[in-house]
Design goal:
By secondary structure, the protein is α/β, with parallel strands linked by helices. The protein has helices spanning 23-35, 42-54, 66-76, 93-101, 120-125, 146-156, 207-217, 250-261, 263-281, 309-312, 316-325, 341-347, 355-363, 375-389, and strands at 59-63, 84-88, 105-109, 131-135, 159-163, 171-172, 175-176, 183-187, 200-204, 296-297, 303-306, 364-367. Helix 1 (23-35) packs antiparallel against helix 8 (250-261), helix 3 packs across helix 7 and helix 9 packs parallel to helix 14 (375-389). The chain binds pyridoxal-5'-phosphate.
């Protein structure tokens, strides 16, 4: 059932993960530039407040990436060299790198192949007497089984740091992702559901954790340093520890504030596209994403299909090339972590030890799923997938 439009290639390349930027963002950035206050200031404070309220979190600290958020969360969790942090074998490298930067040792667990999230049984199997924390990633926006993971954490007295880079709108049993553990880390990278270009946020349950992260994010200068250029006069600061340069700028928050105001509308639009893909690709020999579990809300960040060469007659990598030739940008989220040479050399990890993460890493393709896609764009994606697989 090939439609005639599917026979010709799109004229314009469809950029994967292009953000939907409105006139409000442009006006706020312009206002920010004209005000002369580009750095950390009132817009960052407002963004923290509004994001914290949206997530029903007691404390929110803005930083310049989710990688920075994860790094500082792990330092605030008090991890020391030799401490082990269990995370998933199917994630972006930044999740694992942040553990290494914090001086701890990453330990991988395999995923549940249906949800692509950490398998709690495998997490528990990998606990040793050096395990100090669990770092779940709410993959593609689907919540991890937080009841099970939190029960494990309580039993073994572990900290929990949630990687919510895909999970801004994600809810589990009515509660926002990022508010179950001690820390929730979010990304506002260009392709994420709320985009600032670059940016991140840490949610904490404890006031002292938020305060420590604020100090660490700005050179280790005492807390008031964030306000030191404001109009209530010069304030001396004191360096209380060796911190980092991880603060967010007002220029970034200017974009984020308006992205956040549209977060629900954008989520509904992606759900519409999701349902369209589900319906129009259902008869093909690919594996589509599992339905969202009851009493959860899937953040709908990534729509991933699995291309099994035996069933599809084409391998994943050739499928990627064919989509690109059809002028449609696609993504791979992700090759499993043990496929990368650095981790193999440093930790001795081998892909076959994590069979589910490995197989999905070799078969997965992410189709475009931005709120900015037009009906025509969605039809082009569907037509290209159908043509390639027929
Ligand atoms: C994007 C991403 C990150 C890193 O986010 P940045 O803001 O780019 O640092 C971390 N973890 C996951 C799962 C991601 O997708």
């Amino acid at each position: 059932m090939v439609q005639t439009t599917s026979l010709k290639r799109r004229e314009r390349f469809l950029v994967f993960g292009a953000p939907a930027i409105g006139p409000e963002e442009i006006a706020e950035v312009t206002e920010c530039l004209r005000s002369g206050w580009l750095g950390t200031g009132p817009k960052v404070a407002r963004f923290e407040e509004e994001f914290g309220r949206y997530q029903q979190a007691p404390h929110a600290v803005a930083v310049n990436s989710c990688t920075a958020a994860l790094h500082l969360a792990m330092l605030a969790a008090g991890l020391a060299p030799g401490d082990e942090v269990i995370t998933t074998a199917l994630t972006f490298c930044a999740t694992v790198n942040a553990i290494v930067h914090a001086g701890a040792t990453p330990v991988l667990a395999d995923i549940d192949p249906a949800t692509m999230n950490l398998d709690p049984r495998d997490v528990e199997a990998r606990i040793t007497d050096r395990t100090r924390a669990i770092l779940p990633v709410h993959f593609a926006g689907r919540p991890c089984p937080m009841d099970d993971l939190m029960a494990i954490a309580r039993r073994h007295e572990l900290k929990v740091i949630e990687d919510c880079a895909h999970a801004i709108e994600t809810r589990y049993h009515g509660r926002p992702a990022g508010t179950f553990g001690d820390f929730g880390c979010f990304s506002f990278y260009v392709t994420k559901n709320v985009a600032c270009g670059e940016g991140g946020m840490v949610l904490t349950q404890m006031e002292e954790d938020a305060a420590r992260i604020k100090v660490l994010a700005l050179h280790g200068m005492s807390k008031d340093a964030w306000q030191r250029f404001s109009d209530d006069g010069y304030k001396h600061y004191f360096v209380t520890e060796c911190g980092f340069k991880y603060n967010m700028m007002d220029l970034q928050a200017a974009i984020g504030l308006h992205q956040l105001r549209r977060v629900e509308a954008n989520w509904r639009r992606r759900r519409e596209i999701w349902r369209c893909y589900d319906k129009q690709l259902r008869d093909l020999p690919v594996t589509l994403p599992a339905a969202a579990a009851e009493n959860t809300r899937h953040g709908r960040h990534l729509y991933t299909v699995l291309i099994d060469e035996a069933a599809c007659g084409i391998g994943r990598d050739r499928f990627l090339e064919a989509m690109t030739r059809a002028n449609i940008g696609v993504g791979v989220h992700y090759l499993s972590i043990p496929e990368h040479p650095y981790y193999q050399q440093r930790f001795g990890w081998r892909p076959p030890a994590y069979p589910h993460a490995r197989r999905i890493g070799l078969q997965t393709v992410s189709l475009p799923l931005s709120a900015g896609l037009t009906e025509g764009d969605v039809a082009d994606v569907i037509a290209a997938v159908r043509r390639i697989l027929n």
